[in-house]
From TrEMBL:
SUPFAM superfamilies according to UniProt: TPR-like
GO cellular component: mitochondrion
Organism the protein comes from: Solanum lycopersicum (Tomato)
GO biological process: meristem maintenance; protein localization involved in auxin polar transport
Listed name of the protein: MalT-like TPR region domain-containing protein
Length: 432
């Protein structure tokens, strides 16, 4: 791995490219247009090394491949003098750590980016201050940090990080003279809106999403988070439009030629596409369009398996969504699909790596707790109606109710087609 890093470093010094020696990934994860007039300029070889490392990790999806990728990134980081390139490398490192569930290491890398501050990330080469890649990196780091805090149920930290992102936006405005920060503003506000929605503060969330649909920054994570808010408010038509916008946008930006798409960890473009697809499938299920819902959720499942592997918790989350879709379908059509539901719930619980029932829900896990509660709660309902398995079902139900944390709706409301609709956000593994 160090030979790979050295080879790429030598290429940087002679102006060549060593990446052609390796199999090119189907998706380039970072690719910045180095036109000086845009303000987005960084070392192209650093980007090549990042692309190679991410491709290497995800090709095998093994502990060894991820460890090798981290070695490449460490080598890349050690050879960079440009702070923006170092920031991009640390975003990539944090993303790989988060994909393997190592949130503490991912958070540490993101905090180091924050510690750099805008003074270090400032770009003195432009006579007229403009939004630069340094600003994008700083906002992306805050966005990813809040996302990881949400996924690990560190809600106070997520709120503080979202507030810091808004403060960062004000600093950027002062630095560049106020103009040109529309996209960063949309991202910062959408992040705060998502945090408030997770915390059950729908009215507060609305204030941050207000007017977002008309903003030029309403794409990617902004469109997805706003769509989820509208979905929870049962504004189905607009939610569908925003989900589709997020999906289309990510598909168009998947080669990362636009530095406005810089993102990391559970807020990166792959996660956004998966989240928007899954959310759209849930929406169609809530509307009773079960054929469409099944097709969309199946596509999301396939995408999750391709990106993360068959046994990644993200796969378990989507299996839970599919099981809930069959539950809603059976209730609406007054039919029975107990065997299908039971099989899906059992598989989801296995992939989610659920703790033994003897471990109480409140201390069972720091991530995916509500998803596990939904899966076990739904599974319990399929058992309770079977006389010989009722006791087992009651035990599962009790565990699920203890584990449930949502402040906006109860577990029973989330499982049933009630006045309140639940939306599972696959990015942060939370129920909205």
């Amino acid at each position: 791995m160090f030979r790979i890093g050295a080879k790429l470093y030598r290429a940087a010094r002679i102006g060549g490219s060593a990446v052609s020696d390796f199999r090119s990934p189907s998706t380039r994860f970072f690719s910045i247009n180095n036109n000086v007039n845009t303000g987005f300029k960084t070392n192209p070889v650093a980007l090549q090394m990042i692309n190679y490392a991410l491709s290497l990790a995800r090709a095998q999806k093994s502990d060894e491949s991820y460890a090798q990728a981290q070695l490449v990134l460490e080598q890349c980081h050690s050879t960079q003098s440009d702070e923006s390139a170092k920031g991009l490398v640390m975003l990539a490192m944090s993303t790989l750590f988060s994909e393997r569930g190592n949130f503490s290491e991912a958070i540490e890398k993101l905090q180091k980016i924050q510690d750099l501050g805008l003074s270090t990330l400032a770009n003195p080469q432009f006579e007229v201050p403009i939004v630069t890649i340094r600003h994008m990196i700083a906002v992306a780091a805050s966005e990813a940090l809040a996302g990881l805090y949400l996924e690990s149920y560190q809600d106070d930290f997520s709120s503080a990080t979202a507030d810091m992102c808004l403060q960062l936006l004000e600093t950027i405005r002062l630095e560049i003279g106020g103009g040109g920060s529309d996209i960063l503003e949309a991202r910062a506000k959408a992040l705060k809106g998502l945090v408030e929605l997770v915390h059950g503060n729908a009215e507060s969330a609305e204030s941050f999403f207000e007017g977002a649909q008309g903003d030029k920054g309403c794409f990617g994570n902004v469109a997805l988070s706003f769509g989820e808010f509208l979905h929870c408010k049962r504004n189905s038509q607009m939610a569908r439009e925003l989900y589709q916008r997020a999906m289309q946008d990510v598909s168009e930006r998947k080669d990362f030629t636009d530095s406005q798409s810089i993102s990391a960890c559970n807020m990166n473009l792959e996660e956004t596409l998966l989240g928007a697809t899954c959310a759209l499938g849930q929406l169609e299920a809530h509307l009773g369009n079960f054929d469409d819902a099944e097709e969309i959720l199946t596509a999301a499942l396939k995408k999750a398996e391709e990106c993360f592997g068959n046994y990644h918790p993200k796969v378990g989350i989507i299996l839970t969504c599919i099981a809930l879709m069959y539950r809603h379908k059976a209730a609406m059509e007054q039919s029975s699909s107990l065997l299908i539901q039971e099989g899906l719930y059992r598989r989801a619980i296995e992939v989610l790596k659920a703790p033994p029932l003897e471990v109480e829900g409140v201390v069972a896990t720091r991530s995916r707790r509500d998803i596990l509660a939904l899966a076990r709660g739904g599974y319990a309902e399929t058992l309770i109606v079977q006389q010989n398995r009722k006791a087992e079902g009651e035990k599962l139900k009790q565990w699920a109710e203890t584990a449930w944390t949502s402040r906006r709706l109860s577990l029973a409301e989330a499982l049933e087609s009630s006045a309140k609709v639940s939306v599972i956000d696959t990015r942060i593994s939370r129920v909205l």
